[in-house]
Design a protein that fits this description.
Blueprint lengths: L1 H31 L4 E8 H18 L4 E9 L18 H10 L3 E5 H7 L10 E4 L2 H10 L4 E3 L2
Parallel strand pairs: 1-2, 1-5, 2-3, 3-4
Helix pairs in contact: 2-3
């Protein structure tokens, strides 16, 4: 019984080592291809914008190779409009924070359905804003087709 137990334990150790090596290899490959991919979903700028921008900055400070796309719709688009400031702290100018994150590779997308529904024009938004036909569809595509993790600040 002792020999069989040792053989079983040895097989288990070999399998564990193989799985650990495969996991480490997959992680290394992911890092080579640019790291994690995350979509931040903002649909309420008053409650999410400052917190979300801070979270994104912290995220990139810890994991700088992360690919981040911020998708906004409904009231979430407001912080990407020209002259937008935090309502609770008017010293926080969103354009400069967005610009700094854009320089670090973050993409900010505004829902065009929201533009139509709220009668907004693209030229009302900062230059760092990009546009997507539908914010909700974009989030679904990023999650399902491009394996982006979903975060909502």
């Amino acid at each position: 019984m002792g020999i069989q137990f040792r053989k079983l334990a040895a097989r288990r150790n070999i399998l564990a080592a193989a799985l650990a090596t495969a996991g480490a290899t997959a992680w290394a490959q992911d890092k080579k291809s640019g790291g994690d991919k995350v979509v931040y979903h903002i649909d309420d700028a008053v409650h999410q914008a400052t917190k979300g921008l801070r979270n994104i900055r912290n995220h990139l400070d810890v994991a700088p190779s992360t690919r981040i796309i911020v998708v906004t719709h409904a009231d979430g688009v407001d912080f990407l409009m020209e002259g937008a400031k935090d309502a609770k702290n008017p010293n926080i100018d969103y354009a400069s924070l967005v610009s700094a994150l854009k320089a670090r590779g973050v993409r900010f997308e505004v829902c065009e359905i929201t533009l139509r529904n709220r009668n907004l024009k693209k030229d009302q938004f900062i230059m760092d804003a990009d546009f997507t036909p539908s914010g909700v569809v974009r989030i679904g595509q990023l999650q399902n087709h491009e394996q982006f993790a979903y975060l909502k600040p």
